[in-house]
Amino acid sequence: MSDFRIGTKCVQSGYRPGNGEPREIPIIQSTTFRYETSEDMGKLFDLEASGYFYTRLQNPTNDMVAAKICDMEGGTAAMLTSSGQAANFFATFNVAENGSHIISSSSIYGGTFNLFNVTMRKMGIDFTFVSPDCTPEELEAAFRPNTKAVFGETIANPALTVFDFEKFAKAAHAHGVPLIVDNTFATPVNCRPFEWGADIVTHSTTKYMDGHGSAVGGAIVDSGHFDWMADRDKFPGLCTPDESYHGITYAEKFGKEGAFITKATAQLMRDFGSIQAPQNAFLLNIGLESLEVRMKRHCENALAVAGFLESDDRISWVSYPGLEGDRYYDLARKYMPNGTCGVVSFGIKGGRPAAEKFMKGLKIAAIETHVADARTCCLHPASSTHRQLTDAELAACGISPDLVRFSCGLEDAADLIDDIRQALDTI
Ligand SMILES: *Cc1c(COP(=O)(O)O)cnc(C)c1O
Predict the structure, then answer these.
(1) Is any ligand 1 atom within 6 A of the Cβ of residue 83?
(2) How far is the CA of 160 from the centre of ligand 1 (A)?
(3) Checking CA distances to 407, which of 67, 147, 234, 342 falls within 20 to 30 Å?
(4) Which helix (H) or strand (E) holds 303?
């Protein structure tokens, strides 16, 4: 890990060209790599030497960008994946198997909830969902002998709840299991979960990290803190020989710093092939270079928009963890003193029909399912993504019929506020 501050890491980490080498990260657009002897290649296959042989497992462009994200989070090893979904699947499946159990915050991204609650259950992995606001006793009661990990999101998409790292880390470590945190919304610019006890961090790089709606991608970073060998029986995948990989015991051979990512690459990337395209990694790197500058602006804009909404009597409620008086304001101040994210959610008086009119009236904010983009976008779930649900069913997912999710882009805040004001005038 370098000693640079986060804004410098965003620009400088991961790639340093040698004398006469390209200034920009080279896109290694090659599926395969050439070797002088079979022995040379054999060493790579045996994980005796590091290097590249096939882009389904690893590619140099991806690794340069992963190294940057690793440095930004303060980790020891990292990998890119084809999407945030793949990152969360790999991060959890890497410590679990048929018969395992994982505890997750109930306040998580809908795609992740479905991955856990439907698809991974089909693989024989059980989940218990706990409220992010649960008491330590409620959290304690969720653990079982076969629990392998605890999962949460720094700032949940779309509920905007803030994860109490210390509470969850304490419980996870008391039970000898890692805390895995999806840090997509905060980004390492605003929060570094490893400093608060998380062991593994995941990202949908599709959001702020890319920041321009150009490339779907994901990342996994290991803190290097978790001692897998402390309870070998709990993590057989890391602590006993992998017969599918020449009998290697990852935790023995690669230690705390490297075992998790090496296993996820050698085993899961080999078998599932969810590699990020090197072209996308290149685009992601361009996004990362300006991440610190952009996050400041996203947060400033969101705070201005949230403040305006709070003062307008056509708005029934506002949720933004950076707004004083918000339910999560104190937790946000503690874990994210420099800012949270650019997404604000709010309710419009008059419920579903008023919200529908409001959406039609917007001129700058585009209607999209996306968030965390340079351009402001907006979603009314009750009339779009969740339109098949009744109000009662919506309430069960924590979405009210009047809820609007507003992702503040990089435009001038005054124009965003003017746009919201004129759209409210049309109701
Ligand atoms: C979007 C998102 C994901 C899924 O990422 P994709 O890149 O769309 O696969 C996971 N977690 C969070 C918090 C997200 O916002």
Answers:
(1) yes
(2) 14
(3) 67
(4) helix 291-311
**Which residue's CA is the nearest one to ligand 1's atom 4?**
84
Minimum-distance ligand 1 atom for the alpha carbon of 205:
7
Locate the domains of the chain by residue range.
Answer: 6-285, 291-425
* Residue spans of the chain under pLDDT 70: 1
Q: Per the structure block, which two tokens stand in for 404?
A: 């609007």
Ligand 1 near 380 CB (within 6 A): no
Atom 7 of ligand 1, residue of closest alpha carbon = 84
Cβ(82) – ligand 1 distance below 6 Å: no
Strands (E), 356-400: 366-367, 377-379
**CATH fold group of domain 6-285:** Aspartate Aminotransferase; domain 2 (3.40.640)
Phi/psi at 263 (nearest 5 deg)? -65, -45
Summarised one tens digit per residue, pLDDT across range 81-122 is 999 999 999 999 999 999 999 999 999 998 999 999 999 999
For 242, phi then psi, to 5°, come to: -90, 105
Distance, CA of 373 to CA of 128 (rounded, Å): 32
End-to-end CA distance of the chain: 53
Per the document, the length of the chain is 427
Q: Is 347 in the pocket of ligand 1 (CB under 6 A)?
A: no
* Residue 342, burial from CB neighbour count under 10 angstroms (0-12, 13-18, 19+): buried
Q: 84: Cβ below 6 Å to ligand 1?
A: yes
Q: Is 291-425 in the same CATH topology as 6-285?
A: no
Task: Specify the CATH architecture of the domain 291-425.
Answer: Alpha-Beta Complex (3.90)
Q: Is 158 in the pocket of ligand 1 (CB under 6 A)?
A: no
Whole-prediction pTM: 0.97
Residue type for 355, please?
A
Token reading at 110: 């809908």
pLDDT tens digit sequence for 286-341: 999 999 999 999 999 999 999 999 999 999 999 999 999 999 999 999 999 999 99
